[in-house]
Amino acid sequence: MAFTLYTLIQTAILCTNAIAVLHEERFLSKIGWGADQGVGGFGDDPGVKAQILNLVRSVRTVMRVPLIIVNSACIVLLMLFG
Amino acid sequence: MDYTAAQSGFRQRKLQPNMRLRNSSVDGPDGSQLFDDTSAAGPGAQGVYRNQQAGPQAAGLPGQSFLSDPMSNLAMVYGSSLASQGREMVDKNLDRFIPISKLKYYFAVDTVYVGKKLGILVFPYMHESWEVCYQQDIPVAPRFDVNAPDLYIPTMGFITYILVAGLALGTQDRFSPELLGVQASSALVWLIMEVLVVLLSLYLVTVNTDLTTIDLLAFSGYKYVGMIVGVVAGLLFGKTAYYLSLLWCCAAIFVFMIRTLRLKLLSEAAAEGKLVRGARNQLRMYLTMSIAAAQPIFMYWLTYHLIR
Q1: How many domains does chain A have?
Q2: Region label for B267, one of left (φ > 0), alpha (ψ between -120 and 50) or beta (otherwise)
Q3: Domain limits at A13?
Q4: How far is B185 from chain A, CA to nearest CA, in Å?
Q5: Among B210, B287, B301, B306, fewest CB within 10 Å belongs to which?
Q6: Would A6 be classed as within a structural domain?
Q7: In the predicted model, is pLDDT for residue B146 greater than 80?
Q8: What separation in angstroms does the CA of A39 have from each of A24, A61, B35, B283?
Q9: What confidence score (pLDDT) does residue B204 get?
């Protein structure tokens, strides 16, 4: 129950890492969540699955480099201060 | 309530569902300022700056013997101009990160509005019209429309909740000053997570709505009122009173959220009560229901450990 803002940051980092490690060809295409399988109809209603695939792909593209920096900082800080 | 304004507001909402600026001009729509001007230096936003620049010079007059030396006079004038320049720069840069002008809209409340809104939060069953009035595509400030969301009640409710939680812990001899900070950060974390989850679900369901993030923050903050009522009743009258008043407030906030979100999330036809078929409307209905149902759960989760 004793959540702090630090736990929120930790949760965010862990969740983003989890999304970033989903590999495109080895995993997502195999389960039907590849980048080309999201665009179904071209109507004005993309649907929930297409939105999720879009979100996963954009998070992976955008957060790749910042995650490297943040993860390195986390590793250094945890090794120094426990 | 102006019927034509509400009707045109409906059509304008449908035409421009994306985010609209809450404060496109300096002080809101002309003719109805956000805040009543109480500065003596005259109307306008420059009143504050003018007062401050007149300050150092007015201080020079009483202490004239001190400032008869022209060098120190010059230094004082230069220092005050530097200070005002620095302040302008800070304001300009701060406005880029935190939209202060948009935040001002949410704090433009007055006592009558707060009283009415608290009444609606605790007893929403008699309130008839739930639409927000618009004025030329800018929503009217909360002091003129009781349905508009504001941030004053959530902020005050949050702070009062922390204080009441400290009081409740004190009556059980479990209080220590660090616990206040722990309670505050827990409640804040839950609030942030709730707003993020609602944002994510709104994105996934592709709802074309004009709800901004701050609106969602305001709606999520309204449950603190019910929590405070429950905890205070529990402190005064015991556990039964806590459960009864919490039940009442949970039902009230459930109805309040459904009636407010129905107009914003669902399409117009469904919002008026007609049954509209289609998977999309059903999904939106489920979304509204789950957002409204999450409020009582949070209300119980954040208060049950305070009443033993």
Answers
A1: 1
A2: beta
A3: 2-30+47-81
A4: 5
A5: B301
A6: yes
A7: yes
A8: 16, 18, 48, 20
A9: 86
